[in-house]
Structure formats: structure tokens, C-alpha cells
């Protein structure tokens, strides 16, 4: 079984048109699986650590830290934690007549359930989810605060994924999401940007322009950030040898990894570990 914290909300009485019905955090055990099954209400999940798998509309996605996924009411989905690095997820569930109308404006649905968004928007959505979960502990009535924070989440999603974009913008957003998903699924292997370009069947310069427009950095820098984030996590939380961590982060040459890590953080992997090591439980 997983360690699940479940939170209830009380604002349906005050606002039956747009309300939070529940939320929670799930520190999953290895290979813990939910589904295939449907859920009531709309659900937004955030992956804060680890790795897991999400299946929607008969398509399986591999998700890691920083990813969001969306569940539509009564759509059959499956969620499963990784065997070796089980994920931790946080979620909110909302519904109501206005929820249905708002979701019609956002290009995230059962067939397009995964979203990777720029750091600024991701932080806002992540923070609002955590704030809502924290507010659920308070005894006083928080219906206006609940609704306000939920609307802020929906507003950020509509900014990034509006349904009324011009065709060209829709196309570039879809290409960006597809490329980002490929990077998140494969950065732990020795892929290069050439592999991304080949997978996408795109010109390298065009891919760079898409990334710069959406998140402000190129695909190569983003790939490096993903690998360095994973490297820091492993250095802080494991006793693995540096060469093992290098391989786990997509580097076939440990020396190249050490050089990249020092360039990125200003410290060698060994010094970073000694300065930032967390106590293992």
C-alpha cells in the first residue's frame, strides 16, 4: 500500500458551480497501481519526486519529477509507480457546472492529458495545489479562498493551453509538448538533441526557436537541467558511486558528467555531495 494523505474540502455548500471536492498526496510504494478505473470530477496531479506511469486513452506515458497529468471525469485511466524509483504525487479534484465550462477553454483533456509548462507557470500551479492542501487543515470556512486559488490554477492553464489559438500556435505547442515528453522519458539515457530532432522530424534551429519561445531556454540547456536535477537528487540521497550516478543521468563517460556538473553548479560532484548530503532513513 502507498502512504496516502487525503484532504476534504467544504465549499460545495457555498459554491455548487465550481468547487473542490478533495485533494491529497501519495507517497507511492514500488509498483503500486490504481486502475484501470474512472474517477469523478476533474483531477490535476503533480509529480514532485520519483517516476511513474500514467495510461489514458490507451496511451502510456512515463512521468518524472515536474510533470503534471490531468484526468477527466469517468475516463478510464491507470496510474502505476515505478519499481525502483516510485513517484510522489499531489492532486486536487474539482467539479461543478462552471468547471465544465472552464475546461472547454483549455486544451488539456483525455487525449492530451500530460503537460509540461514553463517554470513560472509550473511554480504557480504547483504552489496553488500545495496551498489548497494546506488550507484544508484549517477549521474556518475557506470557500472564497478555495475558489480563488482554483481559478488561478485554471487561469494559468488557459494562458498556456488555450483552445482558441491560431493553427500555427497550436502546432508549435504540440511540437513543444511532444519534444518535452521525449526528453523527460529519455534523459536518463545517453540521448542528444540530435536524437530529439530525429524523433520529432524537425529542423534543429526550429526546435530551438520553439523552446526559446515557450520556456526561454534551448532544448540542449533544458536536457542538461533535467540531468543535473536528477544528479543533485542522487548525490543528496544515495551513496552511489559517481560513475553510477553519471550513467543514471544519461552520461556514458563519468569524466564528461563531472565536468558538466561542475560547470552547472560550480562544484565537483564529490564536493557537492559532502556539502548537501541528506541523512538516509
TrEMBL record:
Keywords assigned by UniProt, alphabetized: DNA-binding, Transcription, Transcription regulation
GO function terms (MF aspect): DNA-binding transcription factor activity; sequence-specific DNA binding
InterPro entries from the UniProt entry: AraC-bd, Homeodomain-like_sf, HTH-like, HTH_AraC, HTH_AraC-typ_CS, Tscrpt_reg_AraC-type_HTH
Pfam families: AraC_binding, HTH_18
Domain HTH araC/xylS-type: 177-275
Keyword DNA-binding listed: yes
Signal sequence range: none
Protein name (Swiss-Prot/TrEMBL): Sucrose operon repressor
Organism listed in the record: Liquorilactobacillus uvarum DSM 19971
Taxon lineage: Bacteria, Bacillati, Bacillota, Bacilli, Lactobacillales
Amino acid at each position: 500500500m502507498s502512504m496516502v494523505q487525503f484532504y476534504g474540502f467544504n465549499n460545495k455548500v457555498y459554491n455548487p458551480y465550481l468547487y473542490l471536492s478533495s485533494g491529497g498526496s501519495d507517497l507511492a510504494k514500488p509498483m503500486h497501481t490504481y486502475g484501470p478505473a474512472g474517477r469523478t470530477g476533474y483531477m490535476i496531479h503533480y509529480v514532485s519526486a520519483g517516476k511513474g506511469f500514467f495510461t489514458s486513452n490507451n496511451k502510456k506515458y512515463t512521468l518524472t519529477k515536474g510533470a503534471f497529468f490531468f484526468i477527466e471525469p469517468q475516463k478510464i485511466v491507470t496510474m502505476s509507480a515505478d519499481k525502483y524509483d516510485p513517484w510522489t504525487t499531489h492532486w486536487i479534484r474539482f467539479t461543478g457546472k462552471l468547471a465544465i465550462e472552464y475546461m472547454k477553454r483549455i486544451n488539456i483533456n483525455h487525449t492530451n492529458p500530460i503537460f509540461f509548462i514553463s517554470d513560472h507557470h509550473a511554480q504557480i500551479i504547483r504552489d496553488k495545489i500545495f496551498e489548497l492542501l494546506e488550507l484544508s487543515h484549517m477549521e474556518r470556512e475557506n470557500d472564497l479562498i478555495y475558489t480563488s486559488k482554483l481559478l488561478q490554477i485554471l487561469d494559468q492553464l488557459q494562458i498556456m493551453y488555450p483552445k482558441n489559438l491560431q493553427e500555427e500556435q497550436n502546432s508549435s505547442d504540440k511540437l513543444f509538448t511532444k519534444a518535452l515528453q521525449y526528453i523527460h522519458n529519455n534523459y536518463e539515457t545517453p540521448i542528444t538533441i540530435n536524437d530529439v530532432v530525429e524523433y520529432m522530424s524537425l529542423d534543429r534551429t526550429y526546435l530551438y526557436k520553439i523552446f526559446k519561445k515557450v520556456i526561454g531556454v534551448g532544448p540542449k540547456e533544458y536536457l542538461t537541467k533535467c540531468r543535473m536535477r536528477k544528479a543533485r537528487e542522487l548525490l543528496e540521497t544515495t551513496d552511489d558511486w559517481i560513475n553510477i550516478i553519471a550513467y543514471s543521468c544519461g552520461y556514458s563517460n563519468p569524466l564528461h558528467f563531472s565536468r558538466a556538473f561542475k560547470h552547472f553548479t560550480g562544484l565537483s560532484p564529490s564536493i557537492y555531495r559532502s556539502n548537501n548530503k541528506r541523512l538516509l532513513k
